[in-house]
Amino acid sequence: MSQKILFKNIDEPGLATLDVYRARGGYGDRLRKALSMPKDALVEELKASGLRGRGGAGFSMGTKASFLPKGQMDKYLVCNADESEPGTFKDRELMQKCPHMLIEGMIIAAYAAGANKAFIYIRGEYQQQAEILERAIEEAKAAGLLGDRLMGTDTSLTLWVHRGAGAYICGEETGLLDSLEGKRGNPRLKPPFPANQGLYQGPTLINNVETLATLPHIIEMGASEYAKIGVQNSTGTKLISISGHVMRPGNYEIELGMSSRDIIYGLAGGPGDGRSVKMWFPGGSSSPVLTGDDLDLPYDFDSMAKAGTMLGSGAIIIVDDQTSVVDVALKTAQFYRHESCGKCTPCREGTNWTVKMLERIKSGEATPMDLDLMASVCENIIGHCLCVLGDAMAMPIGSMVKKFRTEFEEYIEMARARAERELMAGLSSAPAAQPHHPVAA
Amino acid sequence: MARNRPVRSSATGHLTGEGLQPVPRYAHGSRVPGWDDAVDLTKDPAGVPDPAVVAVPADLRAQIEDFMSRYPDARSAAIPALRAAQEKYGWCSPDAIEQVACVMRLTPGYLAAVAGFYDQLETRPVGHRPVYVCTNISCSLRGADALLASLQDELHDDETVNLRGFECLGACDIAPMVSVEGVYVGPVESPEEIAELARQIRAGEDPLPEKQLLRRPCQDPGAVS
């Protein structure tokens, strides 16, 4: 059993209240220790922990914090709680059950970055979680943990909860900033990066909920102790969300580097009923898929990258052998078509045409050549847009076509044969009826 | 090659032809949905509404002004303000948008663009009680499409309910799941459960209390010591 850091006694009754959280060491010595460290030393400590962002990109948290310019301007800290990546639901459990852990982490991050205004951008659908967070912030304010000169130090921090209104793209950091400024959530051109010009044009540090919630524990354990957990370049524990065809879907905290088979079969119970794993998304629906042959890969950032995919947000979706890959591909593509903000042409058009081509496959109008066309559309999206939403569709769809090409081809044949049969049956039973579409002579 | 070539009818300018389905069109002649009235290009675009002309209910005004005071830049209050207007009027109607624009000193066009971007802000008249069924990958692998269809059968005549399939709601552990006015419930699988849930939604009762997400313990066996 691996060590529990974030999920230790997560179901303790009343953990969402300040009293119980304090009794467990929250807002105590570790926070005082962090706030008494020089800012540079704190950033160095975060770098030394090796903590990588838990939202999807996996960038070093300490390095990101060090990018913010020094000086006396308004700086902002934004917590990205717009958890919309299909398959991901770890931040929800953290915010709902232990909101103060996030607030404490945000105090530490804001101090390290020199920010005095902070926002939690939570997705609009998480209504109950937003209410829990707001209650926790009120409690923390009343106890002098937020506001001017918090805990008797020179540091001040104002914290707001901002609810989104349902847009996947607002999980992209610059789209999130535009949305927080009261605009449509369209991504911005980078550079300038948010560290220089982010929210209200000021320097902004943006981190995921899980990343921020880990900070108090890093301070408590010390960076060197934390770095001993996990494997090289993937330190610490990670919350993973397992869903799809498994017996025990849910959130689990694992040490990075654990075998994928132990996660999928050991923790989540596998697909069950004598079924086997056909395909799995290792890091949310945006990650290129892996097959049942890849189950022995260690689950960490570098091993996943070596296998041509990514750890992403740590959301594992399992698809069993009784499901058609075409159905999964269509669902995936439909989601990205709906969520594309429309700003960049390759993404707006590419997601739309990929859906249309997959629908042709389903209705029996496609030929195997359409698979090459689809692969080419996907290739032309990647790297050609302001943000990675289009890439996030192109990568999994491209990998499905590559790894399951035979199945796609068989499906195309089968669907064509079925469509032809239906057409002939319709012609012979009702000779007067005209088909809706002109038939090739 | 020449068979069934579409021809352009001179009366409507729309494509017609033997063997072709007529294209469904909206009242303004477009194939894409939009406001049913065509834009009048001879008019100037609407400016910031005049507070002397637009009546804003006092409670809505107070709510919006409170949101505006909370942010370093008042414009950040656009989404909370539109949400408040939607809660009051059931949807972001042109009148509702004009009232928000009047308080926030923005143009209605700006706010309509914002409202049109977000899935939870409704720019068409719908039921005021949102019921979302997640139909994304994980939920659809576990039968979400059938769940949505059954709920649609049960609730299609209730005009107060805005039932729709939704993007991933972030609760794949309780798939297939439903968000009833922000309360997550799941897994909703058996026909009896679906019928009971539909009855509770209709009656405005607490949906499937024992299946609500907030009562679900963490699945990690090591989380309990």
TrEMBL record, chain A:
Keyword set includes Cytoplasm: no
One Pfam family of this chain: Complex1_51K
Known cofactor(s): FMN; [4Fe-4S] cluster
Signal sequence, start to end: none
EC number: 7.1.1.-
InterPro entries: NADH-UbQ_OxRdtase_51kDa_CS, NADH-UbQ_OxRdtase_suF, Nuo51_FMN-bd, Nuo51_FMN-bd_sf, Nuop51_4Fe4S-bd, Nuop51_4Fe4S-bd_sf
GO molecular function annotations of the record: oxidoreductase activity
Residue ranges of domain NADH-ubiquinone oxidoreductase 51kDa subunit iron-sulphur binding in the record: 326-371
Family annotation (SUPFAM superfamilies): Nqo1 FMN-binding domain-like, Nqo1 middle domain-like, Nqo1C-terminal domain-like
Reactions this protein catalyses: a quinone + NADH + 5 H(+)(in) = a quinol + NAD(+) + 4 H(+)(out)
Record keywords, A-Z: 4Fe-4S, Flavoprotein, FMN, Iron, Iron-sulfur, Metal-binding, NAD, Oxidoreductase, Quinone, Translocase
Coiled-coil ranges per UniProt: none
Superkingdom of source: Bacteria
Family: Belongs to the complex I 51 kDa subunit family.
The protein's role, per its UniProt record: NDH-1 shuttles electrons from NADH, via FMN and iron-sulfur (Fe-S) centers, to quinones in the respiratory chain.
Name of this protein: NADH-quinone oxidoreductase subunit F
Organism expressing this protein natively: Paraconexibacter antarcticus
Gene: nuoF
TrEMBL record, chain B:
Record Gene3D superfamilies: Glutaredoxin, NADH-quinone oxidoreductase subunit E
InterPro entries: NuoE_dom, NuoE_N, Thioredoxin-like_sf
Region (Disordered): 1-27
UniProt keyword list: Iron, Iron-sulfur, Metal-binding
UniProt KW Hydrolase keyword: no
Transmembrane regions: none
UniProt keyword Metal-binding present: yes
UniProt name for this protein: NAD(P)H-dependent oxidoreductase subunit E
Species whose genome carries this gene: Paraconexibacter antarcticus
